Amino acid sequence: MQPIRVMIVEDDPMVMEINAEFVSKLSGFELAGKAFNGKEAISLLKDIRPDLVLLDYFLPDTNGLSLLQEIRTNNYPMDVILLTANRDPEHIREIFRAGVVDYIVKPFRFDRFQTALEQYRYTLRKFKENRPLDQADLDAIKGIRPYQSEVLVEELLPKGLNDRTLQQILQFLAGQEIPLSSEEVATGTGLARVTVRRYLEYLEKKGDIVMDVQYGSVGRPINKYRL
């Protein structure tokens, strides 16, 4: 799959650079353009046609909702994630009605940013498979799991494992295009390698993920995991 082209709309230069750096840390994404106000944004998105727009709400000449509505009115083929300090419930409701794939409240950490973009990549890959999507596919795209009480889930897991960490690892793997080793998963999730290995072994035994054994020219074979 070609790199996902990202455009950032943000009026604060420092925040712009942080977000651009976050994009650069993620494989499979490339920064296609930057805009510091609404006028620049409309001109640039017409020209570069990004796949994804990371949009602030508070802009010097407009706001994110108005810009989002203009994108939708003109049927520009791109998706939008709001990265903003705006917490007004009525504004947020209107923004979701206008069509965004995610809404991230500032200030945010890199792991939340990473989750949003990896979930978007997973969604895009599903859409490009060119096959009918079933309910399980749609639930995975929306991050919906069948309801189970948290207590019941914890009881069903082996001792020492918890559902939150399990879902963190699964969500990370969902955004990957190639099998990864336990060390690579640990690096990507920020978890300890020993911890990650236990969860990967459990998920592989359950059949939730697949283990590929890869042999190099020298040394021991490496176990790599994928959904």
TrEMBL record:
Residues covered by the Response regulatory domain: 5-121
Protein name: Two-component system response regulator DctR
Matching Gene3D superfamilies: 3.40.50.2300, Winged helix-like DNA-binding domain superfamily/Winged helix DNA-binding domain (1.10.10.10)
Cleaved signal peptide residues: none
Pfam families: HTH_IclR, Response_reg
Record PTM 4-aspartylphosphate, positions in chain: D56
Subcellular location: Cytoplasm
PANTHER family to which the protein is assigned, alphabetical: TRANSCRIPTIONAL REGULATORY PROTEIN DCUR-RELATED, TRANSCRIPTIONAL REGULATORY PROTEIN DPIA
InterPro entries linked: 2C-system_Tx_regulators, CheY-like_superfamily, Sig_transdc_resp-reg_cit/mal, Sig_transdc_resp-reg_receiver, Tscrpt_reg_IclR_N, WH-like_DNA-bd_sf, WH_DNA-bd_sf
Keywords: Activator, Cytoplasm, DNA-binding, Phosphoprotein, Transcription, Transcription regulation, Two-component regulatory system
